[in-house]
Amino acid sequence: MSTPAIAIRNLTKVFPIPFRRDRVVAVRDLSLEVAPGQVYGLLGPNGSGKSTTMKIVLGLISPSAGRTEIFGRDSQIVDSHEEVGFLPENPYFYKYLTGMETLRFYGKLCGLRGAQLADKAGELLKLVGLEHARDRRLGGYSKGMLQRIGLAQALIQDPRLLVLDEPTAGVDPRGSAEIRDLIVGCKDRGITVLLCSHLLGQVQEICDRIGILDRGILVREGKLEELISIEDQTEMIFRDAPPALLAEIQQLVAKSYPQVNLLETRKPQTTLERYFLEVTTAAKAKG
Amino acid sequence: MKIDEGIAQATPSLGSRRRQYSSYAIAALMVLVFGAARLPFEAGLTRQHRAASFGNVQLNLGLRAKIGQLGFLAALSGFRTLVADLLWIQAHTAWEKVEYGRMNLMLNTVTTLAPHNVNFWDLSAWHMAYNASVAAFNDSKQPKLVRRLQAQHQYFMVGKDFLERGIANNPGAYVLHQSLGAIYRDKLEDHWNAFLEYDKAAAFARAPTYEKRFAAYELAKVPGRERQAWERLKRLYDMGPQERLPTLEKSLKAMEEALSLPEEQRVYKTPVQNPLDIIGKKLQIP
Amino acid sequence: MDAPLSAFSPRAATVQHRFFSPGRVWALATNTLTELIRLKIFYFLLLFALLLIGSSAFLVQLSFQDQFQMLKDVSLGAMSIFTSLLAILATSGLLPKDIEDRTLYTILAKPVSRLEYLMGKLSGVVLLLFVSMLLMGVMFAAVLFWRVHVVTGELVTGGGPQELIDQQLRDLHATAYNPNVWAGGLVIYAKACLLASLTMFISTFASSSIFTVIVTVVIYFIGHLQATARDYWQVSNGAAMGHLTKAFLAFVSLVFPDLQLFNLVDEIVVGTPIAAWLLYKTLGLGLMYFLIYLLAAFFVFSNKEL
Ligand SMILES: Nc1ncnc2c1ncn2[C@@H]1O[C@H](COP(=O)(O)OP(=O)(O)OP(=O)(O)O)[C@@H](O)[C@H]1O
Ligand SMILES: [Mg+2]
After folding, report:
1. In chain C, which residue's Cα lies nearest the Cα of A59?
2. What ipTM does the predicted assembly reach?
3. What's the topology of domain B57-283?
4. How confident is the model at residue A8 (pLDDT cuts 50, 70, 90)?
5. What distance, in Å, lies between the first and last C-alpha atoms of chain B?
6. Which among A13, A48, A212 is the best mutation to test ligand 1's pocket, defined by most ligand atoms within 8 Å of the CB?
7. Which atom of ligand 1 is nearest to the CA of A13?
8. Facing residues of A23 across strands?
9. What's the predicted TM-score (pTM) here?
10. Domain map of chain B by residue range?
11. A129: left (phi > 0), else alpha (psi -120 to 50), else beta?
12. Homologous superfamily, domain A6-231
């Protein structure tokens, strides 16, 4: 078995509350593994310890107990950061740098230099759709644009692992969909992704595996399909079915299979997201 | 339910907090150990700085009272001479208002703050001996001449005192000897001491050549020193035409006459007298 | 996002990490310098220029010895206070800002050690101080040359015996172009760097940048009295002195830096010669302070909860 991309073993994190003798247990005895190439979704309500877990995985804060590893290297040691790209929640970069300068700065921190770095930064700006804003200072970026530059920054050194804390927060549905595609692209390239998000629809679309945290405790963990498929139900969707056909099916069910319950019959709706994308794409094509 | 069980568990301890405090302790220890290690070095360096006359000013409470809290704070934190400069300018204002008593106090503070500024000593002395003394002599509020003369003399002495302290602080400054010589010469009419000061000034390699002449002129005015004076003057005269200034020639001539030198040793020979001149002079007398 | 995904693909092999990389420190340093420059911090130089020009205009009425004396006093005094203030103010904000804005997370998530981060930030300030010293030095030299030029003209056209004029010109050049002034500038720079390092150290455990500034300024003032406390403590060892007083003096001597040792400028300006070894010793001491404070900062910062 290959080394897991991320291994979290018996992790506990306690925060003191200033000026009180009380303390907050943000994560309690958490253990999980993310296999290489997987997209792992960490879910949970606000304050359940998702961001704390990620920060510990990146060695930004130290665990109170337990340990975390990235590709087998202790994440408290700087070595392990060579292969990780991190997008913190509500990222906020140096306001006085332009988009291009920001990427070059982070690239240099990863040991990239010269033309290679310039090319890479240019490509990534194009990738996250910020080419038009490459020479604008980040002080003038919108929230979603900051999120995008944050994603580009995380990808600058071609990491093997991406840790994304709410990558779609504040991003418009189009950007959100684009980021989703990007993550899927990363996965196709073999990049491991640890993700946390409140957009469950998206998580469902892209994650292989999920873990659900509640008040610092991992309450459920496993393969996505296994966790959410409803084994005893079946959906059928027809196009152009005449009412007569539907009536016939209902009769058949009632007559021949008394043990089967027809729970509901309805017209599927397009999702608001799909509708929004259709409309804005149309607008874009016209403009 | 599972969650509540979890919360009910004993609260884990704060490992990272302890690490953080121990790092504070390490840092504090480092600062202390470094403090102990640098102590002898800094004490030595301070001694060496003082030996090279860096920062040997006693910033005591007396000074604190004179320059005020702000000035004292500034003086403490490395702007001593800047404070001195400002006070110097203030002293100038006092001069313009003819407040010599106040000016004297301020000049004392200035020179205390910047004891290695030769110029401050020199000009302070000049202000006291030349300006304040004249003002004291002309003081219309003091009708008694004796008192006015007394006050004038006091200011001469204040000037002299500035220069003497200045010399003590700046052994290399020939200018201060020159100025002291001038006070002896012009104000105190003590030509022997004037000679001594000019002579000290002349001894410096950087001193201009006129110091030697000034010394010789003064010596010539001291009764009983005509021989030495003549030797010095003659030596200067022999150095070439650039030294043969009118005062030198006059002084040399006076010495030759005072010593009644034989004709062949004299620079200024007794002119062969024209009989007609004698007749002319004689004719004018009655 | 139509770009081909070839733009990123994971590295094949495990990347070798370098324990310490000057390149990363340099990237952080130049970034910090950029930040400080774009904060328009150099506007203070305008103030310096005004001070220079204003004072030299004002000093015209004084004798030329006084004039150059005060020009040097004012310039070096201003350099000293500007660089010290700059060092304290610029450094005190760096760490709190990065922590508050969480930019620190994005940096430390890259293969950057905390030591490299601190060194980079501090080097940025050191660079800034260097550039400001350089600019102030150039301005000062320009005004000096200009004044010498003017005064020379006045002396030559003023008349008087040639001997006296020559003497005065010699005096003028000796006063104006005293090479020791540059040694004074070096010591000012060393002091400013020391203060930057000290400020960085304090900001690693301070709760806010205001706190850092206040503490550093207090240390600045006490640091100029440290020598007095040390003398008192060491000289009057046997003398009748309360234990409390003694402990206090020992505390001041051991904890506070001796900043008085970096105050050579006062005397340098009036022409007291400074021996090379004395200068080196003083600069060496400054470097020691710089490194020790950096190391102490690293110890605190490496275990700090961000
Ligand atoms: N630096 C800190 N000091 C004290 N408590 C903290 C700190 N950081 C996080 N916590 C606490 O730890 C718990 C978990 O916080 P965390 O940010 O990990 O939640 P989250 O799951 O990311 O929430 P969200 O969905 O809102 O982002 C919260 O109760 C929070 O108050
Ligand atoms: Mg969070």
Report:
1. C109
2. 0.85
3. 1.25.40
4. very high
5. 146
6. A48
7. 12
8. A16
9. 0.81
10. 1-51, 57-283
11. left
12. P-loop containing nucleotide triphosphate hydrolases (3.40.50.300)
